[in-house]
Amino acid sequence: MDSFSQPVSLADDARPLVFPPDFRWGSSTSAYQIEGALDADGRGRCIWDGFTARGRILDGSSASVACDHYHRYPEDIALMAAAGFDSYRFSIAWPRILPAGAGAVEGRGLDFYDRLVDALLEAGITPIACLHHWDLPQPLEDAGGWQGRGIVGPFADYARIVAARLADRVRDWMMLNEPNVVALYGYGLGEHAPGLRLGEQGILRALHHQNLAQGAALRAVAAEHAGLTLGTVLNLQPVVADSDRPEDAAAAARWDAVWNRVALDGLMRGRIPDALAEAMAGFILPGDEEAIRHPVDLLGVNYYSRMTIRREAGRPFDAGWGDPRCRRRTDMGWPVQPEGLCDLLTELRTGYGNPAVMITENGCACDDVVTPDGQIHDADRVLFLHEHLESVARALADGCNVKGYLCWSLLDNFAWAEGLSKRFGIVRVDYDTLKRTPKDSYRYLAEVVRTGQL
Description:
Layout: E1 24-28, H1 31-34, H2 47-53, H3 69-83, E2 87-91, H4 94-97, H5 107-122, E3 126-132, H6 138-142, H7 152-166, E4 172-177, H8 179-188, H9 199-224, E5 229-235, E6 239-241, H10 246-269, H11 277-280, H12 288-292, E7 298-302, E8 307-311, E9 319-321, H13 339-351, E10 357-361, H14 379-397, E11 402-408, E12 427-429, E13 436-438, H15 440-451
Parallel strand pairs: 1-2, 1-11, 2-3, 3-4, 4-5, 5-7, 6-8, 7-10, 10-11
Antiparallel strand pairs: 8-9, 12-13
Helix pairs in contact: 3-5, 7-9, 8-9, 9-10, 13-14, 14-15
EC number: 3.2.1.21
Organism: Azospirillum picis
Keywords: Carbohydrate metabolism, Cellulose degradation, Glycosidase, Hydrolase, Polysaccharide degradation
């Protein structure tokens, strides 16, 4: 079995850290985390609305206003342009387009994305649209959500509807965002919407049905529009065993199959990992593996850290994760391991035919402090970004086919179950006044974009 397990050292490498002239730079956001306006213009309800209403957000906040990007998007586009960004990944809110998840189309939702796309293009910024960033319409969840095959048709129809409206101007399309996170935290552990604890089978079913829906959507859009760049966004993490004990190695290999390979091998190879074939046999039908395979023009990769795995009974797939030896951590408690990004890109080059890749998320939550003069000197985030860009530059020098880097995130935002308490933005949002304040990390990235080097 392939494994993201061989570290690539970045030390003592004197090659210049430069990026090619056509390298794309920008930032990513998601609709639910920044738009607010949850009751505006006919938007339907999504699973995160219900999750919030049940009191499941740790700080008690909601996304009802968030960054109010729905009304303030011109200001946010101006910030991107001032930084020199040429690309922006945003998500379409499925319940804005199809309030019931399927059926009647809400034209005012499409109108909003028309305005957003036109404003981006006017500013010289290439839009990258992601069709599903976790805001599944509640009626579809009520009908089984990602646990059943009934979701496949509605997702393909939704993709077709949005592309019909925007594909004349939006050339870059991503289908899903992080299906592994949706499956584990939404249907396995219940820590994200819809908040279900369905165990290992729930995780695997959610992964498989996202794969099927993704394949159907890719085919639907490709059949009706020529010349588009089609892809999807995966959260990939090198998996390493916590020790050389056989039980830890076995747990790591099985977790790698669940976390990385169901989505990656399904898309790229049309293959379910051998380690999971028996567990998934009950809901994989003849033809499914061919249906989930589809060539992509651009693979979006979200990277935050490695995963260090030990055998821990009672956890899904007996996999306990966490690296107690890693001393540097973000405000989310996640390890800071920039070398893992180079490991990951190298594995995609050597094991998957070197596909065109864009880093579609990379960033960190920091406990930002506003100084008396209103500035945010987020040195930890600047260092985090610099080290990860070093990793990307090394991978490029080694022949990895990396097309661009989008930081997470442009704005502080609603950080899912953490609410408004964790700040990931290179621009601070004051949630009382909604004032935007660029941080030092914003200025750092702007300088890298300007010079094309570290």
